[in-house]
Amino acid sequence: MVGLALVTLSMGNVALAQIKPVHKPAIPTQTNCVPLGSWVAPGSGQVTNRDVIARAAKNAVVLLGETHVNADHHRWQLQTLAALHAKRPNMVIGFEMFPRRVQGVLDRWVAGELTEQEFLRVVEWGRVWNTDANLYLPLFHFARMNNIPMVALNIETRLRRLVAEKGFNGVPVEEREGLTRPAEPSQAYLDYLLPIYKQHDRKDMKKGDISHDDPDFRRFIAGQQLWDRAMAEMLKKALTDGGDAEQPLVVGVMGSGHVLHGFGVPHQLHDLGVKAVSSLLPWDNNRSCKLLVSGVADAVFGVLPHISNPFEPQYQRLGIRFEMSRGGALVLQVEKDSIAEKSNLQDADVILEMAGVSLKNIEDVIAIVKRHAPGTWLPLKVKRGKREIDIIAKFPALKN
What is the Cα–Cα distance from 97 to 88, expressed in whole angstroms? Predict the structure, then answer.
């Protein structure tokens, strides 16, 4: 889940701003300013699929955003990948979902050497991403079917946490996974993230007193920038790995928060010298039109909002990234709006027990959470600093 001045989305934005709208956009009301199944260039109006794909395919890098749990977002990504591939069959697809250390596994998958089950097990999907794999498998199969290289864009969550705690210079060079220093955040990026940061329910903060110079906020920003920088560097590397051969079209699949307004990965790409970047986003058709401002992306596509399907298997999720360390499950990151956040779990907590069961390995954590009954409470024994505390994780009932 950045430069001294806000860098916009460069060539992609300029190009789409010049596309003649299909019709003059109406003055937006509350919602539905991006009709279902239609493309809109923010600040310009509706545009055709042909124009969006043609313009995007002329760039070096195309970023496709998503909300991870929204199935329609992944269907849109697959549709867009297919259209881009028809224009530029020399393609590479980078995925936020994988840390760099599993690159060899991605290569073996594309080569047809692994079954789905083997692939998900070897990449440790349940630990490193822990979102229903069925949402992503069509994308992975598309890459394999068309012999498109897949690139692992991410770094270990532990490294992001270390940089957030100690700053970039505080982490030894040999532990940085080869990363270079991220570009400094723009004032606009700080203004955008500060309200989001204030929403976190942290009892040790005085929310009204937080400013851009708050040390905790700056550490939070450092972690976000490192994440963006890591993905930008791998995308750039994919552009140049072929040497003097024709550059491929490099497509990045990642959370929309890394793409919006050009603040995250696009800004880091610009700092790395990659200027031809296009950002495309799915847009839930119930979102407020006030959010559809010029520069939010090159173009957005109207999709349905996430709706739980009662016929699909329901997977319980606590909402943490973790590793086994310090005698239990060390929380590396608490996801926003998750059960973990609502239960007041915090980064750096160590979960020692779940439902009275000591945690010995990753599989213990995953199995206990997945089999926990909806609508019930899961007691956790947690070590926070030098204290042991009890936390109750309240799992919501399934909706009818």
Answer: 24
**In sequence order, which ranges of the chain are alpha helices (DSSP H)?**
10-17, 49-57, 71-87, 103-110, 116-122, 125-128, 137-145, 157-166, 187-198, 215-240, 265-271, 339-342, 362-370
Residue 47 and residue 40 in contact, taking contact as beta carbons nearer than 8 Å:
yes
Q: What CA dihedral angle connects 135, 139, 140 and 142, to 10 degrees?
A: 140
More confident residue, 246 or 353: 353
Residue 122: Cβ within 10 Å count: 15
Structure tokens given for 82? 């297919």
Do 190 and 97 belong to one domain?
Answer: yes
Sign of torsion, CA 254 257 260 262? negative
Confidence of residue 308 (pLDDT cuts 50, 70, 90): low
Q: Is residue 128 in some structural domain?
A: yes
User: Within this chain, do residues 151 and 203 fall inside the same structural domain, yes or no?
Assistant: yes
Name which of 146, 169, 172 is nearest 222 in CA terms: 169
Give the pTM. 0.74
Spatial neighbors of 99 by CB under 8 A, at least 6 apart, are 128, 152, 154, 155, 156
Look at residue 316 and give its three-state secondary structure: coil
Rounding to the nearest 10 degrees, give the CA dihedral for residues 205, 343, 257, 300. -130
Residue where a domain stops, chosen among 257, 278, 303: 303
Residues 6+ apart with CB under 8 A from 7: 186, 262, 266, 267, 270, 271
Mean pLDDT of the chain, nearest integer: 84
Supply φ then ψ for residue 332, to 5 degrees. -90, -35
Q: What residues have CB less than 8 Å from 149, skipping those under 6 apart?
A: 92, 93, 107, 110, 143, 238
Q: Looking at the structure, do residues 132 and 181 belong to the same domain, yes or no?
A: yes
Give the chain's length.
400
**Mean pLDDT, to the nearest integer, of 134-154?**
97
